[in-house]
Each structure stands twice: as structure tokens, then as C-alpha cells.
């Protein structure tokens, strides 16, 4: 198959991980007779430096017209003083919106080799951590109106959190569909005792529930969910939630796996063109040192093969290679443990390539 | 001293815990020559049943005209189908707003006797968990406008998240003042890369920072904070944050202590009249069984003595009694552990009274 992949190398230490992911993709392509061509697009800090805009129309167009987008991570201290509209993160928000990517899938799964790295105690980890947060990605308060006005002699800032029925329905459906492919349990997380958006969310979910009688559906308040993720993560199979709650809970969920540097994510909309990216940040403190962990980005590339290109064997092969390298005891600095062998970013890439 | 305390017995299993807290208050009053008189007010489900309103004006008035309010917990399945404005929780939101209680203080502290109950692993717990979440309580999206409209043939719900400078300044000041009384570290938690309210929050905090040069001030995004509370809670001394973020993070913070049934809270405004309540819910599933843990409510009463009545020795005495009972190995069902003696709600009250 021929696939055109847009690469966003990203900021700070991010280009180092994207480079390793591309090496892996190239080897997979060679082995399986695919041709991956790459288009480079600029987004985030790099785009600000180059174009004065975190996502120029030309770059969004490259992403939309490709078969999928692989991103590292963006942002860094260099751009933190900029006004809201010109921040690197705004480029990412606009990219998700511009590509119509409303469904962010964030797996939270323990790698057995790294189970000791979980901050949770063994008795909880041993019950299993294997769930997915399906986060609505282009609605809610992150995409509502933001304004700051003068009122009674002081500034008043107002952010607006809107959700419409169709926005809820399409992500709710992904929640149910994802649950159907897994252990058939779906938890809708909201704050329906206070927010109108949450109550509309529940009303729509109840309609969908009728279409998925096999799914064990439940509802949970967001503050309780933040507790339950620590207390009893084994109870979860699929969590579906709005954008901001999903932002907070999916990061907490990743943290309890103990290996943030291992967590990939996918963002999808109506078609098969998706955005694949690690959930970790751009790690400005270690940029240029070849010590950053490339695995989340490599696993994001595997997710791209699986979910956007339907290349299941190829995705399996990458994931198996990562597993083998962990079995051999190779670790980047962020996940180093006693008895293991510390490797840098490029060397981790080499080790994974050896198993493909 | 004479003090008039308003009691809100609350819903489901809540009256059982308030009853024990009142017994403790009475014994403290007798020993120290104080006179506590009690006024009963109705709020939440009980008020809905009695008045058709979760907080009638008469009940708010009782609370405002007393020296402080002791609350158990409200809500339950009985009232869950009601429209947003008539829910029990709405009574609590209106009570906080009506009393002008903008500062919610939520301590997250490990009791050494219960350290094993933490979901976090020992190596993290051993670094110490002792921080306070100072949550803004009467602003932000929980108190903004909530509406659901018809637009393009579908429903659209919109919640509004407003913050004005004076609202931020008064809670920010409490954050700095609280830090000054502790380890002098303050973390402002927000989502300033996306929200206007967060950016205004930071601007105000930077002004206050100039007044508190001794405080080590830092800022953290809310999603990262949800991770850090699991990963490295020892880094925190005081967290100051807006209402909804504080709702989520303070519950997560309580959970990592492993003993939700032990966590009290205070809510204060300009004067000394505060609202004191456990952070746990009304535990409908065990209502009427005399098994609910009364300690968080008893510790809330102790906080009331300390922060609203300046009765420091009396508060110390209650806390020491709780500590002694834990040392003796008495536990309610929620915190039962091997080798301990299980007691019910009234009996836990008895045991604590024995040490006063
Ligand atoms: Mg996040
Ligand atoms: Mg809460």
C-alpha cells in the first residue's frame, strides 16, 4: 500500500522521538512492501518561529490531505509568554478542530515489565489496569468563547462551555462502539448535578444506550472518577467524557500506569485520517541530549497503522518489538530500574529495529 | 464562651454522624465551661421533602445568623431525577454562596495508623502526604449561567465559567496566607494555556506574589496536577485553584490518603462564621445501619472550634482523642484492617468520648 504520512516533528526534544518512529515505519514498509511517503508540516512553537502562527492554513492543509498525521509533542518555555491565541497549544487545538478529530482515544494499560513503576500499590495494580478514556476533543470549554472584559472597574474573564446534541452523540457512539470491542462496560463521566452540558450529555447517552443493550452502562461524577482511578482502576473498561474532564482524567489514568513515556494516543473523526501522538510533553529539559524515550511515539505510529491504515500485522509487529526490548531489560532514563540497561533515544530505536 | 451552632443533619446516613459530632461538642463544652446552643436547619434532600426547596430562605437565614454551621452530607438516589435547580446539591451551592463562603480548605494528610489504606505504594507514602487544597468555592462554572437552548433543530447546552479579579484576589490571598502558616510553598493550578479565566487568575496571583516574597510560588496545569498528586504528592504544601479544578483535585487528594471517612473540611468567607463538613457523601447504601464512620464529621467539628471559635486546646483535644482511638485499633467498616476491632458509628462516638 502507498500511504502519505504528514510528520510534525514538534518542539524541544520531540524531533528526536519522531525521527525514531520514522525509522521504524520505514523498516515496516520495507518488510511488508508498503511505500510510506512523508510530508513535513509545522505546528506549535516551530510554526510560530517560522510563520508567526502556530498553525498556518498551509500546514493544516498538508495534514488534511494526507492519509494520517504523526506528531511528537509541542510547546516549551520559549513560547510561554505569548498571548493565548499565539501559543503553541493553540496550534494543536486548531489542528484537531480543523481535521474534525472529535474522538481522542487514550489507553491506560500496565506493561508487565514496568508494573513496579506504577505509583499505586501492588494489590491494586495486580487487579489489572486496562481501560481506555474516550475523550471528546473539539468541543466544550476549550473550544468555547474566551473573553476578558472590564466590568465595574475590574477585569472579568469568561470562558464558555458549550455542547450540542450531535457533538455528544458522535463521541457517545464511539464510547459504546469501543466498549463493544472490549469488555462491554462503559462509564460516562460528567458533573450532571451541576452542569447543563452534563445533563444534556446524559440525555443523549440514554438514547444511545437503547441501541447497545449488551453494554453495561453507568455514570459517574468527575470528582469521584478522579478518586476511583486511584482506588480501583480495575473497575473501568471504557470511560467516555467531555474534553476538559477527559484531559484531566486521561492524564491521571496514564500516570497510574507508571510509564508516561510509553503511552500513545489516537484522535479520529469521520474518516480514517487521524492524528497520532504520544501523550507526554516536549520535555524541554532534556532536548538535544538523545535521552528522551521514543516508545510512545513509536507506539503512536503503530496505532496509526492499526486504526487508520488497517495494517494489523504491521502494528502487532511494532508492539511485539517494543515488548521484546522491554523483556531484554533496555530502558530509557525515564523508566530506568535496578538491573536494567540504560539506553538513549537513538539506541532504543536501534533495539526496537533489531526486532522488526 | 457561648456559641450558637447551626446543625444540618443531612440525608441518608448523615444524621448518624452529626449525632456523634454533637455528643463530642457537648462533652467539650461541659469540660471547658462553654455553652453551645444548637439550631436545626434543613438543607438538601430533607429540605426538598419538607419545603419543596433544597434551601428555603428561612434555613439560609438560620445559618447566616449563627456562629457557624456543622453539616453532615446531603443527597441520595431519592432526589436524583429532579431538575437541576431542585436538586439537593443546589441547596449546598446556594448555602455556600448565600453565606459568602469563597474559601474551601481541604487537608490531605496521612494518618500514620491508616497509611496502609493509601492506594499509593509505600515508597511514595513514606515521603509524606501533608498538603491543603484551597479551593475557590462560589465562582467559576458551577456558579456561572447554565442554559439549554434549541439551535438548528437540536439542543445546545451552555455553561459559563466566569471569574473576576476580586474573586481571584481574595482566594489567592488565602492561598498565600495558608502557605505562610505552613511550609511556605504555594502551587497555583489552572489551564492557562487554554482558558481566559486561568490567565486572569495568573495575572492576579503574580500581583499577590509581590506581597509574599517568602512564599515559593509556582504554577501547574490541572491535568499535570492530577498526575503529580499520584506520582509525587510530597511536593505539595498548599494548592490554590478555582472551583471545579478544586472539586476534582481535592477529591483525588483525599483518596490518596486512603481514608475518605476521616477527611473534614472548612469553608470560610470574610467573617468567622464558617461551614464545616466531611468531604464524603451521604452514603445512602448504609443509611440507618449505624455503621457509617463519624470521624470526618467529628474532625469537622474540631476544625470549627479551631478556625471559627479560636478554641485551639479544645480542637486539639478532639483530634488527640481520635488519634488515641485509632491507636487502640478501633475501626469503622470503611477502614477496617487485619488485627483491628470493628465498631459501628455510635460505638466509635463512645470510644472517642472516652478520651475527652
Ligand atoms: Mg492533558
Ligand atoms: Mg468533589
UniProtKB/TrEMBL annotation, chains A, B:
Source organism superkingdom: Bacteria
Catalytic activity of the protein: (2R,3S)-3-isopropylmalate + NAD(+) = 4-methyl-2-oxopentanoate + CO2 + NADH
Class of the enzyme per the UniProt entry, highest EC level: oxidoreductase
Pathways per UniProt: Amino-acid biosynthesis; L-leucine biosynthesis; L-leucine from 3-methyl-2-oxobutanoate: step 3/4
Gene3D superfamilies per the UniProt record, alphabetical: Isopropylmalate Dehydrogenase
Gene Ontology molecular function, alphabetical: 3-isopropylmalate dehydrogenase activity; magnesium ion binding; NAD binding
Principal subcellular localization: cytoplasm
Keyword line: Amino-acid biosynthesis, Branched-chain amino acid biosynthesis, Cytoplasm, Leucine biosynthesis, Magnesium, Manganese, Metal-binding, NAD, Oxidoreductase
Ranges of residues in domain Isopropylmalate dehydrogenase-like: 4-352
Cofactor: Mn(2+); Mg(2+)
Note on how the cofactor is bound: Binds 1 Mg(2+) or Mn(2+) ion per subunit.
Example of a GO biological process term: L-leucine biosynthetic process
Gene Ontology CC terms, in alphabetical order: cytosol
Residues the UniProt record annotates as site (Important for catalysis): 142, 191
Compartment(s): Cytoplasm
EC number of this enzyme: 1.1.1.85
Annotated positions binding NAD(+): 76-89, 281-293
Residues reported to bind substrate: 96, 106, 135, 223
Keyword Hydrolase: no
Positions that bind Mg(2+): 223, 247, 251
NCBIfam families in UniProt: leuB
Subunit structure: Homodimer.
HAMAP family assigned to the protein according to its UniProt record, in alphabetical order: LeuB_type1
Listed name of the protein: 3-isopropylmalate dehydrogenase
Gene coding for it: leuB
Amino acid at each position: 500500500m502507498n500511504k502519505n504520512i504528514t510528520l510534525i516533528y514538534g518542539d524541544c526534544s520531540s524531533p528526536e522521538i519522531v525521527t525514531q518512529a520514522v525509522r521504524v515505519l520505514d523498516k515496516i514498509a520495507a518488510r511488508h512492501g508498503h511505500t510510506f511517503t512523508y510530508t513535513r508540516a509545522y505546528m506549535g512553537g516551530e510554526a510560530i518561529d517560522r510563520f508567526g502562527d502556530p498553525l498556518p492554513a498551509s500546514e493544516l492543509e498538508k495534514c488534511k490531505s494526507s492519509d494520517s498525521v504523526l506528531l511528537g509533542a509541542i510547546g516549551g518555555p520559549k513560547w510561554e509568554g505569548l498571548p493565548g491565541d499565539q501559543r503553541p497549544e493553540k496550534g494543536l487545538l486548531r489542528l484537531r478542530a480543523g481535521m474534525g478529530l472529535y474522538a481522542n482515544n487514550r489507553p491506560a494499560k500496565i506493561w508487565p515489565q514496568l508494573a513496579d513503576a506504577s505509583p499505586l500499590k501492588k494489590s491494586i495494580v495486580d487487579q489489572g489496569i486496562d481501560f481506555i478514556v474516550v475523550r471528546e476533543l473539539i468541543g466544550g470549554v476549550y473550544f468555547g468563547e474566551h473573553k476578558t472584559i472590564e466590568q465595574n472597574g475590574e477585569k472579568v474573564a469568561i470562558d464558555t462551555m458549550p455542547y450540542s446534541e450531535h457533538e455528544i452523540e458522535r463521541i457517545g457512539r464511539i464510547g459504546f462502539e469501543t466498549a463493544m470491542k472490549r469488555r462491554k462496560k462503559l462509564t460516562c463521566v460528567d458533573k450532571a448535578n451541576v452542569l447543563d452540558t452534563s445533563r444534556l450529555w446524559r440525555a443523549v447517552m440514554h438514547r444511545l444506550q437503547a441501541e447497545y443493550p449488551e453494554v453495561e452502562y453507568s455514570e459517574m461524577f468527575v470528582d469521584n472518577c478522579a478518586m476511583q482511578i486511584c482506588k480501583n482502576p480495575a473497575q473501568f473498561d471504557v470511560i467516555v467524557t467531555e474534553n476538559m474532564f477527559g484531559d484531566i482524567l486521561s492524564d491521571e489514568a496514564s500516570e497510574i500506569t507508571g510509564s508516561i513515556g510509553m503511552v500513545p494516543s489516537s484522535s479520529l473523526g469521520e474518516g480514517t485520517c487521524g492524528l497520532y501522538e504520544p501523550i507526554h510533553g516536549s520535555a524541554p529539559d532534556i532536548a538535544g541530549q538523545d535521552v528522551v524515550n521514543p516508545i510512545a511515539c513509536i507506539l503512536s505510529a503503530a496505532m496509526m497503522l492499526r486504526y487508520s491504515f488497517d495494517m494489523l500485522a504491521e502494528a502487532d509487529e511494532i508492539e511485539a518489538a517494543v515488548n521484546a526490548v522491554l523483556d531484554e531489560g533496555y530502558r530509557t532514563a525515564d523508566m530506568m530500574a535496578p538491573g536494567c540497561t540504560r539506553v538513549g533515544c537513538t539506541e532504543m530505536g536501534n533495539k526496537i529495529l533489531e526486532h522488526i
